[in-house]
């Protein structure tokens, strides 16, 4: 799944990719009519489990371990987002690409180049140059 936002000019900016068994938490506000500023699209077939905040308290009361498990998943997700953001703002696009290659090499095969470029904050042409430089002599499986 791809997470993205669309600006007032209609330009999409990709902020994350989610693959198998990753947890996605979307929090807007306590008002149901408030829409999130990001959208999600499934790039491949997906099986999703969707929760409802209105039923959360009842579920936690009925299944005691669910609240603890949910809290741990949200804490892990928040930590990952924080670490990714810190890496993103402190790294050059090439360093960010190298990190992506180390941590999520499957994305290169699964995601269109223009979406990867958007995620890295660069143009598709810049991504092509970086890929060519970084992948020279490197084999990707």
UniProtKB/TrEMBL annotation:
InterPro entries: RmlC-like_jellyroll. This is Crp/Fnr family transcriptional regulator. It comes from Cohnella suwonensis.
